[in-house]
């Protein structure tokens, strides 16, 4: 079976992610902007992280809980630090999101900046303009030689992109009925009025979103709510989670579940519920007014309906704190049990766990990374996923070990365990090739790999798994 194609980020996706941004980050401060490869960046707003990709095939915007890649700060956004997100707007029916920030200059004067996300296929871009509508920075620079109509360079006045001829989020620009199914292929085949059906469907989804991912003609699609005649691949509690899943062809956490001894299987499942309670704490605070007026909340976690009720003389804030405490308690148990299982593991140089000769209780947990041996005998660790990347980089590596990561693209963290010895050039190339092999540039057969001592790595406070900041780096040109 061929791999599933990623979806195209539509004006429907744009609207629903923008609503999520309003609910979770409006009123929060801009902390940092990071560049992620050539076509991506990550913004930290309060305690949340948001990814923008302008890759022509993978363009999108959503909140992230995990990051696969090394990042570098964007110095042109430093003056945004401390500014408050005051407004989130989606121009009617367009694949654009406008983020207005208000802050102060060093002279304590009011500073208004507009961060514009243009999510339009090969024309996608992220642009920062000031109150005079002059461009201060863009993720992709467009020179006059590249576009005489709409160059994008610092110092030029910002020109909005032309409007789409049609839009699924603007009734005034709906496609003709005979063309509607080409743009939204989920209208029931026997529906006599597809335009009216879509309007009704979107109105219901806007009032009660239940995002799902479906598959049609070998492509994943994100829908804001289930469609009766379309089989659901997976349901999600937030639109960002659905988008993130749709753009990941085979999440490692699902394809390689850990092997758990039967004696602790129930306990393992119980402590993993910490994510559910963390979600409930956030959901209570997000829908505070609704809970105050009705005393109950109906929500959903990974397809499981949940009814949230206030206890006697309990305030919504008390309930949120109770959920947060339970999440913290379960997470401590999860980390403790995870560490215990990992201590039982035996790893071979090939990265495959050795079979257990003892009873079932000694079965090892599958590691989140592979283990290899370099030509000179150094151990080389390669992360399988974002959490595996964090594990090898911030738990298993020492300050003098070497860190490798493909430059300007998502990929695995690679650690060359040197033990303070000086590796040979062939060892460096071996580790660099592993970084390229396990990256988005592997199919190119060649690429540039960054490397540095682990002591020169930093992980921003509260950053999602997999995100790492390089303070200094060297590079190697690698061919597979």
Ordered list of secondary-structure elements with their pairings:
Layout: H1 11-25, E1 30-35, E2 40-45, E3 48-53, E4 60-63, E5 69-73, E6 84-89, E7 96-104, E8 110-118, E9 125-129, E10 135-138, H2 177-183, H3 194-207, E11 212-216, E12 219-223, E13 232-235, H4 239-246, H5 252-255, H6 265-271, H7 274-286, H8 288-294, E14 296-301, E15 304-309, H9 316-343, E16 369-373, E17 379-383, H10 386-396, E18 402-406, E19 414-417, H11 425-437, E20 446-453, E21 457-458, E22 467-470, E23 474-479
Parallel strand pairs: 5-22
Antiparallel strand pairs: 1-2, 1-5, 2-3, 3-4, 6-7, 7-8, 8-9, 9-10, 11-12, 11-13, 14-15, 16-17, 17-19, 18-19, 18-20, 20-23, 21-22
Helix pairs in contact: 7-9
